[in-house]
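Sigma 54-interacting transcriptional regulator
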Amino acid sequence: MNKKIIGVIALDPFAGKAYADQVRQVFGSRAAVRNYSVMDKTAENMERCDLYMASTDAFDAMKTWPHGIPEDAQKMEIQVTYRKEAIRLLREIPSGTKVLFVNMTETMAREAVTQLEQLGVTHLKFILYAPGCALTETAKIAVTPDEERYVPKGVSRVVNLGQRTCSADTMIEAAMRLGFEDILEEEAFKQYQESVCTNTYYFDRMFDRSRRLETQFDILMEVLDQGVIAVDEQGNVYAMNRMARDITHVLGEQVLHQSGASVFPYIPFRQCLEEKSATEPKVVRVAGNLVSVYVRPVLRRESCVGAFAILQKFSEVEQRQNELRGQLMKKGQGHRAKYCFDDVIGGSDPIVRTKEILRKMAQTDSPVLLIGETGTGKELFAHSVHNASRRKGQPFVAINCGAMPENLLESELFGYEEGAFTGAKKGGRPGLFEFAHQGTLFLDEVEGMSPALQVKLLRVLQEQEIMRVGGSQIIHVDVRIVAATNEELEKKVEEGSFRQDLYYRLNTLPVWIPPLRERGDDIFLILEHFRRELGGRFVLSEEIRQLFREYPWRGNVRELHNVAEYLNFTGHTVITAEDLPPSFQMRQRHWAGGKNEGHTVADSNRIRSSSLPPDTAAPRTASDARMVLLEILFRADREGRRIGREGIIREARRRGFSLTQPQVRKMLHSLEQEGYAVISKGRAGSTITQQGIRLLQESKQIDT
C-alpha cells in the first residue's frame, strides 16, 4: 500500500504542528504528514501532497489556496473543536462568573467563544481580549486556547484549554478523500473521536430528549388503565397500548400504519381530525362489552397533527367515578349514616311496629316517605333505614329542602359546572346526588322544594339521571331516596303547591312516625337517656311523671331534650312542678284549660307574670304566634338588622313557642299579604312595616 502524503496548513507554526500531530495520531503509518504555516511563510514552498488540509484562519489569511498547489489536488478545510477535557474544566467554574477569553485576535476570540456556546458552555460571562485590545472589564480568571503569552497581567488564575483540535468530522472527510474508510473502524480513530466534542451539542440534546420522551411515552402508554389508540395526521395508527388491545381484542402489530377509521369504525377519528376538536364521550359495544369512547386532537399551532382515542369499559368508568366521589367525601364531607334501629329508644307498641315496618322497607330500593310532626326523629329513622339496607357501606347524604333558597338548593343537589353562575367554583362541583351515588339521599322537609326542583327530582326518580347546573352532560346516578315531611302532602297536592306525580313517586312506602304523646312510658326511657348524656342527677316525682304522660309534647323528642337540659340546671334532685321550665308550665296550663277547676284566673296571671320575660306573653293560639313573630321582627328592626326564618325560630323558642320552618314561612307570607311585613329573597331576611308596628301598638304588644 502506497503511503499518502498529507499537508497541514495553519496560520501560525504552533497551531500547524498541533494539527499535524492530531492527523498523525489518527492515520499512523498510512500517511506522511507535513505541517506548514502562513506566518513563517513555509506555506509558500510546499511539496506535492495527496491531500491539503488548511485551517480556517490560514485560508482567510491566504485569501485563496497557494498557487503552488496543483489544480487537480484534493483540498479541504480543517474544522476545529475542543477536547472534552477542556469543556469539563469550564463547567467547574461557577455559573455567572466573569472570565477573560484570550486569543491571538479579537476575531479568533469571538469565533472560539461562539463555538463554546454551541457546545453548551453558556453559564459563563465571557469578556473577549486579544493583543492591542482595550481592556474595558476586569476578571480574576482568564481562559485561553494555549495562548497564555497574551494573558494580561493581574489575572490571578489562567485556565489553558489547549489548542483546539481537528474535529472528528474533519478526520472522517480526510479518510474518505484518501480512500481510508476502514480507518474509521480502528481503535485509534475511536479513541480520538471519544476525546473530542462534536459540534452538534444542541442537536444531540434534542435527540436525547426526543429519545427519552419516546421511551417515557411507551412506558406511560403501558401503565395507563385506559385504552389508548394514537393516529397521525393522515389517520393511520402509530401506537396502541395493552389496555386498548384487551378492550378491542385487536393485536396492535396488525393495525400499525393502517387507517384507524377502517380498523375501528366505531371510533370517530375522521371527525376529530377534520373538526380539530374533541368528540363527546359516547358508549359503544365492543367485543361484547359496553365501552366509553372519546377522541382528543393533537394540535400544533393551528394544525391537527394527530389524535388520541381513549377507551374504557363502562363498568370501570362508573367505578372510577365512585372512587373520586369517595375521595371527595373523605376530604371533610363525611357522608355516613350514624344511627341504626337499635339507637331508637323505646319499647311502646307504636314505635316497635314502626321499626318493624321500616326494617322490611329497608330491604328494597323504593323511595320511603317518613311522615310525622316536628321533633319525632325522622332523620334518625332515615339513618337507620340506610344502615339496614344493602347500601349501608355506601354514602348517606342528608339535606333540609326547606332551609335553603331555591337556587342554592338546586346547585347543592345537582352540582354545577365552572362558570355556571357568578361565584361558581373553578372546575365546577359535584352535587349531593353524585356524592350519594349507590347510597341514600335523605330529603328532609321535602314539601319546601320549589315546583321547578320538583320537576328535576321527578326526573331523577324516573330516569336515574341528572345534569349539573350550567352543564350539558347526562350523569347516571344510582340513589335511593328517603324523604320526610311534617306537613300533609295530600293537602299540598290539592292546593297545587306540590306535584301529584312526584307525590305518588315519593309515597311508594309511606310510614307514620308516632308522636311522643302516643308512646306512653317511652317518654321516661328517652328522658333517662338524655339525663345520662347530660350528666344530670335529677329524678321525677310521681306528680311530674303523671304530668309528663298527659302533656301533649308538641315539640316531641326535641322538646323533651330541651326540658331535660333545663331540669339539669335546677339544682334539685327530685323535680317538682316549681322546677319545670316556664314555657312548659304555660303550655301545660293552656292544655289543661278549664279541666282543672282548682286553677283560678289569679293563679294563671301569677304564673304568667313570674314565668315569662316582661316584654312578651306566651302565645297560645295561631293569632298569638303571628303577634309573637311580628314582635320578633320589630325587635330586630329596632336593632338595625333583618332576621331570617332560622333566627325567628330561635327567638320564638326563647319566648316559649316552638315553630317549624313551614309554619314560619306560611305566617310570613300571610303577614306580607296583609301589609304587616316584607320578605326579602335569599338570606336577606324579613322586616316589619309601619303598618305592622301600628298593629303591635294597638294590641298593646309594644309601648306606643
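thats it. The mean pLDDT is 83. The chain has 28 helices and 26 strands. bye
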